Amino acid sequence: MNEPSMEKPTGLPPQTFDDVRRVKELTVLYNVSRILDQSLDMREVVSPVLEALAENVDMQHGTITLLNRKTGDILIEAAHGLSPQQARRGRYKLGEGVTGQVILTGEPMIVPRKSESPLIVDKTQRGKQADTSFICVPIKVGQEVVGALSVETPFLPERVLKDDVRLLTIVSSMIAQAVQLRRAAQEETEKLERENQRLRQELRERFRPSNIIGNSHEMQIVYDQIAQVSKSNANVLIFGETGTGKELVAHAIHYNSDRSDKPFVKAHCAALPENIIESELFGHVKGAFTGATAERKGRFELAHGGTLFLDEIGDIPPAIQIKLLRVLQEREFERVGGTETVKVNVRLIAATNRNLEAMVNEGKFREDLYYRLNVFPIYVPVLRKRKADIVLLADHFLEKYSRENDKKVRRLSSAVIDMLMSYHWPGNVRELENCIERAVVVAEGDVIHPYHMPPTLQTAEASGTLTKGSLKELVDAFERDIIVDALKSTRGNMASAARALNTTQRIFGYKVHKHDINPKKYAG
Fold it and tell me: Which alpha helices (DSSP H) does 243-311 contain, by range?
């Protein structure tokens, strides 16, 4: 079959066509080089590169596809002359169609006539034109094939098509670095998305109500309230003394709500200086005040779609209370120094250790704001009113800090448990946690003893654990605690307990009988 003659200008020597084409090729390579010099961001360079191919050497429908190493999918990253719908349809597997074959083998392919080749799968549904050729070359980074560059041209002689392959191979090598950066960015984005999902799942597990430690009746009421309010969008006001775990309750509400996939943003009102709290909550525009060198989003904008937790709401200044009330009513505000109205969709959870109702009566807190916040109140009980949870919490913190400090501390002595139960815990759960952390740090064995505890718990006035009595009574009480601790460690095995205390079984048995201790109680 004779090759079709190339149309040449009349009166020019035969070599003129090749000369013109070489000039066009050099023009393309120059333009591509100039485009890549400006940026290696693939999103910025691929479209101009494909346009240069179309305008200078009549290579239409230029397409760049990338291989996803994780899934094996080949997707269109950029295409010239394709609609977004056509580009989305262009999804291939390794070995599928011309593109899949080129990426699989790393070798270029020429299809002289699209309409006559079974390898043309036409995923984009552009059709198989009879007078169209298809060329596809691999994009390589080193020896690795990372994608492909393909074009369509008018039906041309094989010699000319091979020249096109040579040109496209050069172009593909020039854009390979941009392709590599783009693919690395895609994979990093996917990695971050997976990590984000994993962290969100961890947060859900960590902050679900079942992970708040406590089985007391008082805490069961709190759990029921969390379950009631979580799925709603109602504002929540959490009351409780410092250290009771108000923030944990706020976390539990958010991560059991329909907003759990959205941000959970915190702001501690008492810790924010009055002169910057407005900027922290509502953001500011550039130049709004000295030091405002750039526009900045506030906590409300950062929490859009999710939950904003305002801790110690009772310390918020009166001027900010007005603006906060407007956000709760209108769901909109202006940044500091700005005029543009910002609309937000935020669920507000506030917490306080102060008596807001008394503050309202004293004129220190706006009544209308109080009622806007107090839609669903939750009271977190103090530790001294949930005695049943003290040992449970202490064991939890013991395990946590033993693990963190790489220690083998396993349990609390009986005397320590008595101390914990007798103490009044003005600092609530936070104070208990700090006490156990300290005890684990200073402990040398596997048991926490009274002398490991802070001095505040070791005084008779504070703990109530030291009682007046004779020396013999105090020594007997101490001896009994040591024997009980040994039996707990050995699960009631008297022989092992005697060895642990470096005494004979006979003496140990005598002491057990003397103090009326039942070893079977500690078995199992």
Answer: 246-255, 277-282, 299-302
Judging by beta carbons within 10 Å of its beta carbon (0-12, 13-18, 19+), is residue 421 exposed, middle or buried?
middle
Rg (CA), the chain: 37
Catalogue the E-assigned strands of 155-263.
236-239
User: How large is the angle between the packed helices 414-422 and 471-489, nearest 10 degrees?
Assistant: 110
DSSP code string of 444-508: -SSEE-GGGS-HHHHSHHHH-------HHHHHHHHHHHHHHHHHHHTTT-HHHHHHHTT--HHHH
DSSP-assigned states of every residue in 321-345? HHHHHHHHHHSEEE-BT--SEEE--
Q: Is 464 left (phi over 0), alpha (psi -120 to 50) or beta?
A: left
Cα 498 from chain centre: 52
In terms of C-beta density within 10 A (0-12 exposed, 13-18 middle, 19 or more buried), how is residue 422 classed? middle
pLDDT digits (tens, 9 = 90+) for 123-164: 676 666 667 888 999 998 888 898 899 888 888 777 788 888
Sheet strands side by side (includes 236-239):
264-268, 307-311, 347-352, 236-239, 376-379
Alpha-carbon distances of 36 from 44, 185, 305, rounded to whole Å: 9, 18, 40
* Ordered domains of the chain (ranges, CATH): 16-187 (3.30.450.40), 208-381 (3.40.50.300), 385-466 (1.10.8.60), 468-524 (1.10.10.60)
Q: What is the pLDDT of residues 216-266, one digit of tens each?
A: 889 889 988 998 999 899 999 999 999 999 999 999 999 889 998 899 999
